[in-house]
Amino acid sequence: MSTRVFVAWFDDEHAVLDATRAAREAGFCIHDVYTPFAVHGMDEAMGLRPSRLTWVCFVAGVVGLSFGLLLQYYTSAVSWPLNVGGKPFNSLPAFIPVAFELTVLFAALSTVAALFVKLGLRPRLGPTDVLARVTNDRFALCLTTADARFSEARASELCSHHHALETTYAEVS
Questions:
Q1: Which domain holds residue 135?
Q2: Which string of b and e fits 56-88 if b means at least 16 CB within 10 Å?
Q3: Does 115 share its domain with 57?
Q4: Are 131 and 112 found together in one domain?
Q5: Mean pLDDT by 10 residues, the chain (173 residues)
Q6: What's the predicted TM-score (pTM) here?
Q7: How many structural domains is the chain composed of?
Q8: How many other C-beta atoms are found inside a 10 Å radius of the C-beta of residue 141?
């Protein structure tokens, strides 16, 4: 489903950052900000919440650690105990390398999977609509026009005040 948005084009990362802050303070609904590279402080300027992906990584790491320790304990002390050099069956120092590797493996794979699900990165039938010029040297601030508080005159004035190169309308998905 495509959405009609008001797009302001900028050639400077500081200008788009200031314009994003000003648009949020003015009450505009920000659809997205497209940049060719990461801009420090853009999350705060857009009013985005901190990511919960760190919690997914932590929980998956704890699950991987628990799985690794329990699997090794079960195989070496319960299922098939072998006396190797007089060491105890449940020797924790021997379990650490495998448990560490499973912790990292579970955390990494679960975090990537959660990121793909959250961003909707899955195979699609057709190409996604991307504003063409942001892949090279432009920054784009997209404001939602479906919002009842949207005013083209106010949006144009705000963007020109923050040195927008041009303003247009576009259809984005």
A1: 3-49+125-172
A2: bbeebbeebbeebbeebbeebeeeeeeeeeeee
A3: yes
A4: no
A5: 83 93 92 90 92 95 97 90 81 91 97 90 66 78 84 90 89 74
A6: 0.71
A7: 2
A8: 32
